[in-house]
Design brief:
Blueprint lengths: L15 H8 L50 H4 L5 H5 L7 H10 L4 H15 L6 H10 L6 H14 L5 H15 L5 H13 L3 H13 L6 H13 L3 H13 L6 H13 L3 H13 L6 H13 L3 H13 L6 H13 L3 H13 L6 H13 L3 H14 L5 H13 L3 H14 L5 H13 L3 H13 L5 H13 L3 H13 L6 H13 L3 H13 L6 H13 L3 H13 L6 H13 L3 H15 L5 H13 L3 H13 L6 H13 L3 H13 L6 H13 L3 H13 L6 H13 L3 H13 L6 H13 L3 H13 L6 H13 L3 H13 L6 H13 L3 H13 L6 H7 L9 H7 L1
Helix pairs in contact: 4-5, 4-6, 5-6, 6-8, 7-9, 9-10, 9-11, 10-11, 11-12, 11-13, 13-14, 13-15, 14-15, 15-16, 15-17, 17-18, 17-19, 18-19, 19-20, 19-21, 20-21, 21-22, 21-23, 22-23, 23-24, 23-25, 25-26, 25-27, 26-27, 27-28, 27-29, 28-29, 29-30, 29-31, 30-31, 31-32, 31-33, 32-33, 33-34, 33-35, ...
């Protein structure tokens, strides 16, 4: 049917019958009353929109003088089967007549809706025309028909997917103007909701903008729906722009709006933004509700801002809002990340006192916290409490406890937990198996680790992660053949080795100096399509550098440039460190400058420390100092390691004045000297025979509460020994042992040697006995000092016993020992024994030096002349 313009269109002359309706509007007939409704109810419109006639009412009149006084309303229509047909022209229905009728029901929206459903299939008009929009304006005028109006607009949007919002808004407004309706915001709001419900978000935004342009502000609920739709499709920028438009027109939303943006910020990993939204809402006077507080506390926890989180929790409780279980859990976990066990336990108690049950995540976090503090007793107390009172421990709880038991070497408890998991039916994962394997390896029971590994392979649990644990152990133990067999087994079982597997193999080959084998592993990795990572290239560079093949290290660096891997600090540092260890520190410095200039590399203090240490060890202090200055200019702050290297270099180059300057620089930069720095300073002054400064530094570190190392004690004792002040050396030794520091072999050697030189034979003997009691066996240096010292003091018998002890321990005496004994035998006149020792030297492949021959031929023995010596021979 051809669409007709409404009889209410402006500047149009209506037919006489329609004009009469306007002058004296009557409901469908000349009579103002309707007959009584029949007793039997008549069904509503069917699915096609038609009113179904009731056979029991057939033949009854619908108008006439006998009509009772009853107005036309929705109730009467339910009982009149064909009233609309009789009073609206039957088959002569058209769009204009329908519009006239709908306008007649302007104050009776339910009847208008029923009439529309009845007339629609008879007239065949399309949704979106004047009839449709007149109905919408009528329906939104009555609370009874809000829902039908909304549903009609949703259907309109879904059935007209290509019709733009601008058309719909214009048609709705034109209709209102044409037929004298006041604009009702609800109609436009329902249209907006239609676009949202149908997933036409862009059209919904256009509809929103059109409404704002016409000063029709959507309801907050609709705006929230639109904002939610934008957030769901990750259009945060559009959502913010839309919200800004809302604020401009004076609508700041409600708590749901604020929660929406806070949740979106948290999902995007921007907790600071969520807190800012929360604070802005508070400042505007939009009183936060409990949900907003929960989100703000969650954001503060993600920021690790515990003071903010605790403050919000307190504020929330003061306002009688009950924090959620998730909020307390977040706060507890944040406290654990901040190592604040006390606060975490307080929160746990507060949570329980509020009647909020603990969840397994929070309790497991507390168990882990106790483990990290080394308090396994409390960890297991809490674990047992979980089993008794709930929540039941899950696989993660068991994982934490098993891991820490294995770390602590308590494999008995780890096995107990592992078996308990099986009994309780808690799912076993690769992490549990791997923790057990690692525990057995740490506890030096590799046979049990290998047994568990074999069981995991047979059970089909073993994956690349578990295999790599065993593979790494094989490689660290130098068991390359076993490692290669394991890789073959992995491939046969369908467990693909990954980059970590190949990195372990390469590292093992490099440690064994099997350079070509390492290269073969690398090429095999490439053949299998496994992409090397920065650690792979670092292994190659470091391996070649340590084995002196710098050119191949350079080749690897060039290879990275041709790949898609961006070198990281570890790669650059491996190359620079390799050059320094190979004695090519100047090349390392040039390479660093190239990396900075051409590749944008930002060196760390470790990078510069490698170069500084390389220059110091190479005796190039000026270059080391220059690198130090360059480092400071480039904004890299030196560390105690930097100053330790420089101090060693200064003493090595006899620049004591520069040491003091460096020490002052450390103070100016707020860098506190540590034990290695004090060790370098003390050792330097000791070697300069400046025991006054060395002793002053020792006193200083004691005042700072630092504990001197064995190396510092050894340095000071050596200094006093060299100056012949064994009393001071022995006093230091006594202080050290009283402080619980064990004496090592070099220190015993220094003390015994000094005591022998000062004829403190009893003290030397006591020290030697104590050393043996402590299980410290003498080495060649100790034996040399002992034998030569005893010989010089005329203690030939004791020297001979020490010499014989060396033979029992398969230690070959050196030339100094033989020479000292030969000299002492000569002094006693036992030339036969002296020459016997000479022959023994030759048999053991030792070549006597000039001193030995001088003694043998009496040139250094004042008490023997050449005649007597020759006669004895």
């Amino acid at each position: 049917m051809r669409k007709m313009r409404s009889s209410f269109a402006p500047k149009r002359i209506s037919p006489p019958n329609l004009l009469r309706c306007l002058i004296n509007p009557k409901p469908f007939c000349s009579h103002s009353r309707l007959p009584n409704a029949p007793d039997d109810p008549i069904p509503d419109a069917d699915s096609t929109g038609k009113i179904m006639p009731n056979p029991g009412s057939a033949g009854k009149p619908i108008h006439g003088p006998a009509c009772p006084k009853q107005t036309l309303d929705s109730a009467s229509l339910d009982h009149v089967p064909y009233l609309f047909s009789a009073k609206h022209g039957g088959d002569e229905m058209n769009e204009a007549r329908v519009i006239d009728a709908l306008l007649g029901y302007k104050n009776d929206a339910p009847t208008a809706r029923r009439y529309y459903n009845w007339s629609k299939p008879r007239c065949g008009f399309d949704e979106g025309g004047d009839v449709f929009w007149v109905l919408i304006h009528v329906l939104v005028g009555s609370r009874e028909t809000f829902r039908p109006a909304r549903n009609l607009l949703i259907r309109y949007v879904s059935k007209c997917p290509t019709r733009k919002p601008s058309v719909a808004v214009k048609d709705m407004m034109d209709c209102a103007e044409k037929f004298g309706f006041e604009l009702n915001l609800r109609a436009f709001d329902y249209l907006l909701n239609g676009y949202i419900r149908c997933g036409r978000v862009d059209d919904a935004v256009d509809c929103f903008n059109l409404m704002i342009e016409r000063n029709m502000i959507p309801f907050v609920k609709s705006m929230n729906s639109l904002l939610s739709a934008l957030v769901r499709r990750n259009s945060m920028d559009d959502a913010r722009r839309l919200y800004s438009q809302m604020v401009v027109v004076g609508v700041t939303g409600d708590c749901f709006t604020i929660q929406l943006f806070m949740r979106a910020s948290l999902r995007k990993g921007k907790p600071e933004e969520a807190v800012e939204i929360f604070n802005d809402a508070k400042n505007r006077g939009a009183g936060p509700d409990g949900s907003m507080y929960n989100l703000a506390i969650q954001a503060a926890c993600k920021m690790s801002n515990l003071s903010m989180a605790f403050g919000l929790l307190t504020e929330m409780r003061e306002k009688a809002f009950l924090p959620s279980q998730e909020t307390y859990t977040n706060a507890i976990m944040a406290s654990m990340r901040g190592r604040n066990m006390v606060e975490a336990l307080r929160l746990k108690d507060e949570m329980v006192s509020c009647g909020i049950p603990m969840n397994v995540i929070a309790v497991t976090s507390l168990v882990k916290g106790h483990c990290e503090k080394g308090d396994m007793v409390r960890a297991f107390d809490l674990f047992n409490e979980m089993k008794e009172k709930g929540p039941s421990p899950n696989e993660f709880t068991f994982s934490v406890l098993i891991e820490w038991c294995t770390r602590n070497g308590d494999m008995e408890k780890a096995v107990e937990l592992y078996d308990e998991m099986k009994i309780l039916g808690v799912p076993l994962s690769v992490f549990h198996v791997n923790s057990m394997i690692q525990g057995y390896l740490i506890s030096r029971t590799p046979e049990k680790a290998l047994k568990m590994f074999d069981e995991s392979v047979e059970a089909g649990v073993a994956n690349t992660f578990i295999c790599n644990s065993i593979l790494s152990w094989f490689c660290k133990q130098g068991k390359i053949d076993e490692a290669m067999k394991l890789v073959s087994m992995m491939e046969s079982k369908g467990i693909e080795p990954n980059v970590v597997s190949y990195n372990n193999m390469m590292l093992a080959h490099f440690k064994a100096k099997n350079m070509e084998e390492a290269r073969v592993v690398f090429e095999k990795m490439l053949e299998k399509g496994i992409k090397p990572n920065n650690f792979t290239y670092s292994i190659l560079i470091d391996g070649y550098s340590k084995n002196g093949d710098i050119q191949k290290a350079i080749d690897v660096l060039n290879l990275i440039d041709s790949s898609n891997v961006t070198p990281n600090e570890f790669v650059y540092n491996s190359f620079i460190n390799g050059l320094c260890k190979a004695g090519r520190t100047s090349n390392a410095r040039d390479a660093l400058r190239k990396f900075i200039g051409e590749m944008g590399f930002g060196p760390s203090v470790m990078t510069y420390n490698s170069i500084i240490d390389g220059f110091v060890k190479g005796g190039k202090l000026d270059s080391a100092i220059a690198t130090y200055r360059e480092m400071c200019v480039n904004g890299v702050s030196p560390t105690v390691v930097t100053y330790t290297s420089l101090i060693h270099g200064c003493f090595k180059s006899n620049k004591t004045d520069l040491v003091l300057k460096l020490r002052n620089e450390m103070k100016d930069k707020g860098i506190k000297p540590d034990i290695p720095v004090y060790g370098a300073l003390i050792d330097g002054f000791v070697k300069k025979h400046d025991m006054e400064n060395a002793s002053a530094l020792f006193s200083e570190l004691l005042e700072l509460g630092l504990y001197p190392s064995v190396a510092i004690y050894n340095s000071l004792i050596s200094g006093y020994r060299n100056l012949g002040n064994m009393d001071a050396a022995l006093d230091l030794y006594k202080k050290m042992t009283s402080d619980g520091i064990r004496c090592d072999l070099p220190m015993y050697t220094t003390l015994i040697d000094g005591c022998l030189k000062e004829r403190k034979l009893d003290v030397a003997s006591d020290l030697y006995s104590k050393m043996l009691e402590e299980g410290i066996q003498p080495d060649e240096v100790m034996s040399t000092a002992l034998v030569t010292g005893l010989c010089k003091k005329g203690q030939l018998e004791k020297a001979r016993k020490s010499f014989e002890e060396m033979g029992k321990k398969d230690m070959t005496p050196n030339i100094l020992i033989y020479t000292a004994l030969i000299a002492e035998y000569f002094r006693e006149g036992n030339l036969a024994k002296a020459f016997a020792l000479h022959d023994e030297m030759l048999d053991k492949g030792l070549t006597p030096d000039g001193c030995t021959y001088d003694i043998l031929f009496g040139k250094k023995l004042g008490g023997l002349n050449s005649h007597s010596a020759t006669g004895n021979i």
